[in-house]
Amino acid sequence: MMRIEQLLAQAEHIDSPTAQLDAELLLAFVLDKPRSYLYTWPEKTLTTAQLNSFAALLERRKRGEPVAYLLGRQGFWTLDLAVAAHTLIPRADTELLVEAVLQLADASAALNVLDLGTGSGALALAVASERQCWQVTGVDRIEAAVALAQDNQQQLGLSNVRFLRSDWFSAVAHQRYDLILSNPPYIAANDPHLQQGDVRFEPLSALVSGADGLDDIRLIIAQAPEYLTANGWLLLEHGFDQAAAVRELLHLSGFTKVSSQRDLGGHERISLGRLPSLS
């Protein structure tokens, strides 16, 4: 039988910048305990079944499979979300988009919000959890992603958000929204990062968007004015080197107050613009 402290030492075999954390999360998952338990009871031994489960998960992680997919969970904003291999893993960088959305409007205003390409529902659910008077709609073209987002909604008990199957705007024709946000695919088809790290296991359809990574962003920016109210906002996450191109696209489509915001790494990670009033 092996002790917890012995098993955690196996983290050195994981090729990951967060190897120790990865091992802790996997072992805590197998034991159905919080991570603090591992250091409170380092001498505890595992059953054969627990050892086998941990060994299997550790081997999959050594092959590069993301921890979030192994656990089926990922934290985002203040939420704990179910995730699956047919959706992107919610990342901390995307929380910048939530922050920007919340800063744009009075918390007491009754707004309609649209999240394009919602995946697990992370953005829509985070916004809905912070603004109970807003009505939030999340859409995704993948039926399994919509089902996953609906499951997350039910687990969180949020009643001011709904999820629909839609190829971008196709299922919300004739609707108008005060805020439209999206973390769309924005990686170029030949980007070498697609062969590195966790993204190797994530769905390409949620990552890649044409030769320069901007195909979906172009489509969203071009069509968004038809679905925004006067003075409505469009906010987009994009690649670290795409901000200037996205701002130009926003300007060309008639958006005003166009700007970009930087993530914790100092990269311009999101860009936004406002649809002017018709008056």
Structure, explained:
This protein has 279 residues and is α/β, with parallel strands linked by helices. It folds into 2 domains: 4-64, Orthogonal Bundle (Helicase, Ruva Protein, domain 3), CATH 1.10.8; 78-274, Rossmann fold. The protein has 10 helices and 9 strands. The termini are far apart. The relative contact order is 0.10. The model has no long low-confidence stretch (mean pLDDT 93). Belongs to the protein N5-glutamine methyltransferase family. PrmC subfamily. Keywords: Methyltransferase, S-adenosyl-L-methionine, Transferase. Methylates the class 1 translation termination release factors RF1/PrfA and RF2/PrfB on the glutamine residue of the universally conserved GGQ motif. It is an enzyme of class 2 (transferase).
- The CATH topology assignment of the largest domain is Rossmann fold
**Strands, count:** 9
Task: Specify the number of helices.
Answer: 10
| CATH superfamily annotation of the largest domain | Vaccinia Virus protein VP39
Largest sheet: 7 strands, mixed
| CATH architectural group of the largest domain | 3-Layer(aba) Sandwich
Compute the gyration radius: what is it?
21 Å
Which residues form runs of ≥5 with pLDDT under 50?
none
The largest sheet has its strands arranged as 5-4-3-6-7-9-8
Instruction: State the name of the first-level CATH class of the largest domain.
Output: Alpha Beta
The SSE order reads HHHHHEEHEHEHEEHEHEE
| Anisotropy-based shape | elongated
The helix-and-strand class reads alpha/beta
Multimerization status:
single chain
What separation lies between the terminal Cα atoms? 75 Å
How many discrete domains? 2
Approximately how much helix is present in the residues?
A: 25-40%
The share of residues in extended strands comes to 15-25%
User: Mean pLDDT, as a whole number?
Assistant: 93
Keywords: Methyltransferase, S-adenosyl-L-methionine, Transferase
EC number: 2.1.1.297
Catalytic activity: L-glutaminyl-[peptide chain release factor] + S-adenosyl-L-methionine = N(5)-methyl-L-glutaminyl-[peptide chain release factor] + S-adenosyl-L-homocysteine + H(+)
Binding site for substrate: 183-186
